[in-house]
Specification:
The protein is an alpha+beta fold. Helix content is 25%, strand content 56%. The protein contains 2 helices and 11 strands. Strands 1-3-10-7-8 form a 5-stranded mixed sheet, with no helix packed on it. A 4-stranded antiparallel sheet has the order 2-11-4-9, with no helix packed on it. A two-stranded antiparallel sheet has the order 5-6. A hairpin with a 4-residue loop joins β7 and β8. It starts with a helix and ends with a helix. The N terminus is likely disordered.
């Protein structure tokens, strides 16, 4: 009876170690430049990375896995890695391992999922590149400034 209890306890612990994982990470406010993310995972997983854009921005997002194999033995491996971008209303905006998207200021999240099948799990890494898009009033001010410089130059030439 004691052996059966130990066996059942071992099965429960082993199945919980292989069960699905879900973790949420906050990348904070992104304004410009590169932000990196990644994780060492085991079993089936779905990681969520939340972030906010302070301005309208062009974004490039990508992810990849690090596979470490020796002959037929796999130390690190992830199968079916997927990356999806959602807005705060849970609308899927893009999916794939590499994509670009023009986004308005607001809250977003990335879901990274897959199945780590390596002996010590799997490792993935990714990045978000944010380039702010100037607003229309910025272009208006620039054109007015250029027009003023042209007016001054023309006036000086006339004198």
């Amino acid at each position: 009876m004691k052996t059966i209890k130990q066996f059942l306890l071992a099965v429960v612990l082993a199945s919980s170690a292989l069960s699905a994982q879900a973790t949420v990470y906050d990348l904070g406010d992104l304004s410009s430049g590169n932000t990196f993310f990644g994780n060492n995972v085991s079993g089936s997983f779905t990681d969520t990375f939340t972030f906010s854009l302070l301005d309208n921005s062009d974004t490039s997002i990508g992810a990849t896995t690090l596979n470490l194999n020796f002959r037929r033995f796999s130390f690190l491996n992830i199968n079916n890695l997927s990356l999806s971008l959602f807005d705060s209303g849970d609308t899927q905006l893009s999916t794939g391992l590499d994509f670009s998207q023009s986004l308005v200021a607001g809250n977003y999240y990335l879901n990274v999922s897959g199945v780590a099948t390596g002996y010590i799990g799997g490792l993935y890494a990714g990045g978000i590149n944010v380039t702010p898009v100037p607003e229309a009033k910025t272009y208006t001010m620039m054109l007015l400034g250029l027009g003023l410089i042209g007016f001054i130059a023309r006036r000086r030439r006339a004198d």
